[in-house]
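Listing S7. Sequence submitted for prediction.
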Amino acid sequence: MSRQTTSQSQRGSQRSNVPSRAQSQGREEPIDRRTYIPPNGYDTDAMKQFRSYLVETGVEETFKKMVKLLLNRPTLPYNPYPGFVLRFRQFAEKFHMEQESIEKIQQSLRNALQETYIPNLFCVKGHDTVWGLSSILRAVNPSSLEKYQWLMDDLTPHPEDIMSTQDYSNQVMLALVGPAVFDGTFYPYVHNIQIRMEHLVTGPDVKEGVAVFVNSVMAYIDSMYSNPRHLILGVNIPDIDEEYPDITVYDLWDPDKIQEEKEEFLQVLSDTVIGNKYICMECILKADPYYPKYIRAQVQFGLNFIEISEENVEEGLVSFCEFPMACLHEGVFLNRSHAEQYISIFSPQVDPFQRDGPRSALGQPPGADKLEIGGPRSMSRQSKNRQPTSAQDQGIRNIKRHMYDRTTHIMPRKVRIDGFRIGDENSYGPYAWQITTPIKSHFQKRIAGHHMHAELCDAVYCAIILLLLDRDSYAQELPFELFRLLHSTVGLLYLLMEQNKSVRYMVKGFSNTSQLQVIREYLALYREAVVHLFQSSLNDRSLEQKTAGKIIVAQVEDFLPGEGMSFESVLDVQMALKTLKDINWYCLTLSIQLAEDSLSQTPVLKEVMIAMKNTFPKVIPQPLTRHRQRRDPTGTEMDADVSHGLEHEHMKDLLHEKLIIDVNNSMESGDYSKTIAKEAILIQYMLDTHLDGVWKEYLLEIARAQFFPPNPYPRLVSLLRQQAMRMDLFFEKPEQTEAVLLATELKMEDPENFIYTINGVDAYGTSSAVRVLDTGAFIPLSQIIQLFVQQDYIQRKGTYRAGICLALSGPSILYGKMQPFLNEVELHEHYYIQGPPGCSGDGIQLFAMMVYNHVHDMVMKNTIPVVGVFFGEMKWSWEEVVTRKQAFMDMLVGATSRSEPVFLKAFILMDHWRYIPVRKYFLLHFITDDELDAEIFYPDNPVAFYQSVFLSRDRAAFHYQNGGPTNGGDPMNATNVRQAQQFLDRMISVSKDRCDWMTVHRGLLLKSLMNQDKVHLVESWRMLHSMAAQIEYVIGMLDSLQDLLVITMESLEYANRNSSRGATGNSQRTKSRTPRQLGVIPDFECTVDEAIFGRMTMVMHKKLVEVTQARIFMTGTPLTEFLKAKLKTCIEEDPRLDNFYLAFNTESLFRLEEVKHMLRFVQDSLAADVHHISPNAISATENLAPDEILQGRPSSVVSYMLNDPYVYRQRPQAQMMQTILE
């Protein structure tokens, strides 16, 4: 911002009535601020409201404090805005957290209670629908829990339907547990419920009692298969992690596996019971009897057994649940009789003389109790249960036999409870230390085991239970912090992610049924929830959150009605499940940074979590250090310090991150008077960083808004992020940037065919394609292209003649000065087949044969890694291509006939340390002999012609003659350019709607090259040199590592399979000599060099850590640590060297996929910031006419032209359901 200095003489002339020279010449007189007198009436009502708004929100005072904090530092950063962003984000979240007053929170957590005739059993006053302990009931909302009343009653089996045997009784009690208990209080709403179904079995033998319980649970599970209202998705069997015994992992049995392996399943159930764990049935439950409303649910089965002696006397209680009385401290009952019966389990009836007898220090009588039958607990033996069938009776005997084998070394814990005694409730009853201590310890360890940021809301639930168990042990502020955190943005995002899981359950449960409308309804509700959280005008959000919301909405809308998603095919279901799961990984990055912001406002909770981690350090999950079992392929330590493409000097090693201003040194070396040296340096710093301009821009934005936003900080955070991008990218004048980007020695090589070239390289094409080439970067690219060129330019077969032209296309032509990173090489191989009219079908057959021969030869040479051939979403691996020729040919002919994209994906070594992916499209043009008709059999894309570079003038000319603009003539004339740009504008619109700003700016750059102007040149350069581009580069490396890992695993399997065949053949050589099997590659070796693969892994890891730790990344340190821990789970280290490699297993593929989607959130956020400091790009995208917007899902041609390498990459194979639904 320019400033005009005012002299003393000017100030004097201003005060006098004589007009100055400036006034006489019509110019505005400079004003001395110290003597300025504002005109009358300047202080309007609007101005008063504006000043009042700044004071009430405190945003102005906060900004001053932050600036003062910055300027008081001994060293000043080159870019101060990332630090501002992290601090002001906390104020934005603080505003959300303080929406609810302390008084209102207290009112929600202090229900008036009413006693019942049973000690310690209460209900909420005025409500007779919820029963439980007073500690829990004070914090529930009975009105919110009433909606589960019908469901709980519907799930309760009738006594006659509960299986039992002679001399044994079986009784069921249902309790609501989990976060749903606090629906409407701590949680604003929930999307899933947990129901605990505890059985009370009485009888003479505990082992047979377990068998009765297991068969009863099995019968209940079986009944869910035919239940007309509810759906079963599987049963989760808890297992103990040997490394972390306090952490429970689950093995999910899907419905088909349960029925196919029922005998083994019954034994697994009995082992679970012996291990004092709950059997967890995952299901979808109908929540309303009159409306198709469903909810994700988990039904937990637990056993309590009372042993009855021959004298009909109770010998004691054996609890096979995780903790006795856990339902009382974790949940509530919606059925009064269930509550009373459950408490009665732990309330023995004794004779008066026994009740008055002395007690031991532990609350137990000194002698063994003989408990007479009677009271509410005896109801279980008075109800008549169903007798088992012959098959179930056999199952009971098998389980009983299995129990005797198992209990020889695993004995269930026998829990003897002395019941309730009115008086000191801390000594007896549900609050006895023998009951509460193990429960407290369990939840304390769970808090310690949860990641402080990624699993914050899971830890908050545990903190709620601990707080209600013992309120006096925690600070009075804790309940308010817990309440506010779950109502803040991070809490609402957690609930949105839980809703995402529920939608996945609906997709899994209702696909291939007559109730597909349920899937679409819940997808629509999920979309509405995303809009409400991120895009509601009532709650102003920062730009990064708005961007995330738009991207998620766009992905969800792909599955809504009218978008071609039927959910009737396996591919549709797998795509939907994977996309929804990827969305949750995408949201996790935002959740981690929101958790960091929220924890700054909850000091008590943070202190509690840290105390738990310090108390139980052994339960904190730490990824194992895996050691390589194979010999290191190099034998020496590999260097991970490499050059990444052609980075600008300002990008190398993140130079701006290291630049600082030492205030004291500047004072000594500057030409300032000592009295004002520091002030002068600070003023100059503020001018150079434009702090005053940012504040002014913010004030103007607020003042011009339709209304003052209640939360002033999100807009300020957005402006600060954009200014951070300016400081990072605006380090030279636009004219300097423009001068080095475009080729200056452009010349027309073939005027007749409008072919251009530049000196120094063999590159030919339109001026739009050649102008942007970097000659130094194009030389290694041309060497790569040569490896994929078919040597026979013209081929003949009968009456058909074929010409083949290979071109470099897409963003690959930008590599060099315009785009520093080469993420992928995109090749377009055009097949021009000339034949008789009406014979296009034979032409397609010939095309398919030529493509097959080319791919087959490339695989059989066994020199470069080949991923396979892709038909849209479907991948054919390299092995399938060579072993299933006819099926591959049929697939290729069908895809070509439908004009679908077909491409080969392979890798080529570059810079001696990394494999570059090469995507080669096969494009068929059929030309009739009379040359009057030409037909293309690939997605029409008139823009590709303007970014195709050929290695020879002849092939460039041939392509122009047969595949150039339909109107002919100069491709760069106004008519041809306008026609192509209509298509380009539609594609840019699609990318804009999906907030894919990297693709938008590549499209705008191409638009400028086609128009032969420089409107978008510098802005696109900034986007492609931003931190968003660096993250895109890291994601590209992760994607390449996935494909290379797949190739390596496939190659090892192929080699092992064929070596075993060879060994078998050798042993039988004397008997017969069989011909070599079709498709066996001679002298086969894995084409991926393990040493280079390992070094690429190390380089990726180093680059990822450098990028995520950079201040300009603006996410905080927790994300870096989380990503490093996640990557460590799939890395194997050499025990003798510092080298490490990816583990060769499918888990590595999934971990890399998760990291990619977490990084993509940051890429999208930073790209949006860069876009919003690009006025030309904003104007160009806003001015796109509505009729130019491409409706519906993006077609394959969008990906094909603008090179989105993630839309049509190989989808992982069908995953286990616990992986999809986790």
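Caption to Listing S7: primary sequence and predicted structure tokens for the chain studied. Residues 142-350+367-413 form one domain. The longest helix spans residues 1027-1067.
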